[in-house]
Design brief:
By secondary structure, the chain is of the alpha+beta class. The protein folds into two domains: 3-68 and 174-345, 3-Layer(aba) Sandwich (Aminopeptidase); 70-159, Beta Barrel (Elongation Factor Tu (Ef-tu), domain 3), CATH 2.40.30.40. The chain has helices at residues 3-14, 23-33, 143-148, 176-194, 216-225, 246-249, 268-280, 298-302, 329-345; strands spanning 39-42, 48-52, 59-65, 70-76, 81-87, 99-103, 109-115, 135-137, 156-159, 164-166, 170-173, 202-208, 229-237, 259-262, 286-289, 309-317, 325-328. β4 and β5 form a beta hairpin. The protein is globular and about 70 Å long.
Length: 356
């Protein structure tokens, strides 16, 4: 990975961009993307879009989502403890003993910890780890003292954790789900620019907001762009990690390449094109079956307007929705190359009609 790309990757991953508050991360992303695009715009809720070769009738989207899970301050006790509710799929079971940053109005950031009773007092009566039992301690003795720090109901708390490389093979950190996708589509745009590739369509590089609470950003931007094709990238579970059940969750492993999804929202002709591209260019890939929905922004694009031919290219990930999400560097490059080569194979005159 080139030096400039790695610097952007870590800056982008370590930035805080919880659902509904993605603006700082979107600025970082657009700033990196700017040299590789012709136009850009941001919608009213913060989805950021870079456009390559604008003005063509045929439109293709490559998309990731920018938001991360977090917590909302929900209640402050009289003696200064803070209770929270989830913003997205935050895991309350990993919260005890975590450090966090509480992001308040006017850019204030207050450090805190998720406290928990000592093991000595839990021997006979273990408190259950559930949302109503976890709390944040910011070192205050009263509600007034907490509020004087700038903390208010609705302030957002995010686990404190940075990104780094493990064994020079695996990238670990908070919020790889799915800012790593934003990194990958930005790298695709860079390759298009640096290789001076001529695309016979308009390419929309889309970094959507609010995926973690219901695919909302993709829902809005898909209607605005109304593309012909959408190639969505997100993360999926490495089921070779301990405690997974392959019979229920399929077989997927970090280091074995991008994962291609089969399911109702995935348009089969587009999927077959991606598979043929992977085979032609000897890009290793894995397969995964989904049920009613993919659980990703693919669903929003697929069922938008009169329907959009959509597919999902996923990055294998360990320990999703923790502070140590983990992915292999070869899979990152594999996803980038598969998206890039697929774009080069798309002919606007080619029919994606289901029966053709």
């Amino acid at each position: 990975m080139r030096k400039e790309s790695k610097e952007f990757l870590h800056q982008y991953l370590d930035n805080v961009s919880p659902t509904g508050f993605e603006h700082s991360g979107q600025k970082i992303w657009l700033n990196y993307l700017k040299p590789f695009i012709d136009e850009q715009f941001v919608d009213v809720y913060g989805t950021a879009v870079g456009v390559v070769n604008p003005g063509k009738e045929f439109k293709v989207v490559i998309e990731a989502h920018a938001d991360e899970i977090s917590w909302f301050v929900n209640y402050i006790t009289d003696d200064g403890y803070i209770y929270v509710i989830r913003n997205g799929g935050s895991d309350f079971q990993i919260a005890p003993s975590m450090r966090c940053n509480i992001h308040c109005e006017n850019g204030q950031v207050v450090k805190g910890i998720f406290g928990w009773p000592a093991i000595h007092v839990r021997v006979d009566k273990n408190p259950e780890i559930k949302q109503e039992n976890i709390f944040i301690d910011v070192g205050c003795k009263s509600k007034q003292e907490v509020e004087e720090l700038g903390i208010h109901i609705g302030a957002v708390a995010v686990f404190e954790a940075g990104s780094e490389w493990l064994n020079d093979q695996y990238l670990i950190g908070r919020a790889l789900d799915n800012r790593i996708g934003g990194f990958m589509i930005a790298e695709v745009a860079r390759h298009i620019k640096e290789q001076n590739l001529n695309l016979p369509f308009s390419l929309y590089v889309v970094n959507s907001v609010q995926e973690e609470i219901g695919l909302r950003g993709a829902e809005m931007i898909s209607r605005r762009i109304n593309p012909d094709i959408a190639i969505v990238t997100d993360v999926t579970h490495d089921t070779f990690s301990p405690l997974y059940n392959k019979k229920q969750q399929g077989e997927c492993k970090c280091g074995n390449g991008p994962v291609l999804a089969y399911g109702p929202a995935v348009q089969n002709k587009l999927l077959q094109k991606v598979i043929s591209v992977a085979k032609k260019h000897e890009i290793s890939f894995q397969r995964n079956a989904v049920s009613r929905s993919t659980g990703t922004d693919t669903d929003s694009f697929a069922y938008s307007t009169t329907g959009v031919a959509s597919c999902l290219i996923s990055l294998p990930l360990k320990y999703m929705h923790t502070t140590v999400e983990m992915t292999h560097k070869n899979d990152i490059e594999g996803c980038i190359q598969l998206i890039l080569k697929t774009l080069q194979s798309i002919d606007p005159s080619e029919s994606f009609n289901y029966l053709d």
